[in-house]
């Protein structure tokens, strides 16, 4: 056993050295080379070839602050496809400064603010602030990459094991304006900590009958069926404990409290008519409500998130 540990240690040490050298190349040598015209042109020709050769729809560009903004405009123009940049920074103004040189950025502003809220029990008005700030600061918040976990940060469940809070966090970010990115293992409730523990093996752990797998599947199906990306993010109700918004015919309600309570939402999508029945696609039971006197009574039993869709359309489509 000691030999195995010793060999593993040697391999890891060598990998770390390679890792370090690659880091040095990317952060120090590459930016320097980009001052030279020939190197810039080769990189642009290379990315165009990659996109064309493999019919790629979009790319993620890591650590974009290490290279000057003007190059990213040239690079993404050459790529000719959607590109989302990464900068591990929660300041929306800093992130927004890269949208233009790049088509989009990962929305670390929403990531940090929403994770803190559902971990620490902050006011749900925080989500209103996130949306309003993104709308004010970013040239186009509808194409930002939204997410709750990734390989750079400890998984949410590694330090906050509340499954209901995690589900609310997922629902908010999945239906928030932007393009949702689901990190593998979310559908299995993986709870690895900081890198490398957040890179758990999926093989042997894949359960398509698990509650979370079905939960994520239902979110994906609702988003696709009702094409929420074609509709604006409209706030419908907010207080200390609830944040509700709509995307077209879909009404989303999130909470960070675990008591039984209800609220009446009167500011409804125009498509909702008196007597319409809305059903929560995330419910494993019969969570359906009816538009009565121009209002919907949304009742929470134990902090569960809601994604209500018209029952008639759900059945028909």
Automatic annotation (TrEMBL):
- Give the coiled coil ranges: none
Q: What one GO molecular function would you report for this record?
A: metal ion binding
Q: Where are the transmembrane segments?
A: none
What SMART domains has UniProt attached to this entry? Aamy (SM00642)
Could you mention a single GO BP entry for this protein? Answer: carbohydrate metabolic process
Cofactor(s) for this protein? Ca(2+)
Q: Which UniProt keywords apply?
A: Metal-binding, Signal
Q: Where is the Glycosyl hydrolase family 13 catalytic domain?
A: 5-223
Short name of any one Pfam family annotated for the protein = Alpha-amylase
Q: Could you tell me what this protein is called?
A: Glycosyl hydrolase family 13 catalytic domain-containing protein
Organism from which the protein derives = Euplotes crassus
């Amino acid at each position: 056993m000691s030999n195995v540990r010793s060999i593993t240690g040697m391999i890891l040490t060598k990998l770390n050295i390679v890792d370090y050298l690659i880091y040095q190349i990317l952060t120090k040598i590459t930016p320097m080379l980009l001052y030279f015209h020939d190197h810039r042109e080769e990189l642009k020709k290379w990315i165009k070839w990659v996109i064309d050769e493999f019919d790629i729809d979009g790319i993620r560009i890591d650590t974009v602050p290490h290279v000057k903004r003007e190059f990213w405009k040239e690079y993404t123009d050459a790529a000719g496809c959607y590109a989302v940049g990464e900068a591990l920074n929660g300041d929306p103004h800093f992130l927004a400064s890269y949208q233009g040189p790049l088509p989009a950025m990962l929305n670390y502003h929403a990531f940090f603010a929403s994770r803190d809220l559902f971990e620490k029990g902050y006011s749900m008005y925080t989500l209103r602030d996130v949306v309003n700030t993104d709308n004010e600061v970013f040239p186009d918040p509808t194409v930002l990459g939204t997410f709750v976990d990734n390989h750079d940060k400890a998984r949410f469940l590694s330090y906050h094991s509340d499954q209901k809070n995690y589900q609310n966090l997922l629902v908010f970010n999945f239906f928030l304006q932007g393009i949702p990115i689901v990190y593998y293992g979310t559908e299995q409730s993986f709870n690895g900590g900081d890198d490398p523990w957040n890179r758990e093996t999926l093989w042997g752990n894949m359960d398509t009958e698990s509650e979370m797998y079905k939960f994520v599947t239902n979110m994906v199906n609702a988003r696709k069926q009702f094409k929420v990306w074609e509709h604006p993010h409209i706030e419908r109700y907010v207080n200390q404990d609830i944040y509700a918004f709509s995307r077209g015919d879909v009404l989303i309600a999130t909470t960070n409290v675990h008591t039984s309570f209800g609220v009446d939402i009167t500011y409804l999508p125009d498509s909702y008519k008196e007597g319409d029945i809305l059903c929560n696609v995330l419910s494993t039971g019969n969570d359906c409500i009816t538009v009565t006197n121009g209002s919907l009574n949304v009742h929470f039993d134990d902090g569960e998130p809601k994604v209500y869709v018209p029952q008639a359309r759900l059945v028909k489509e």
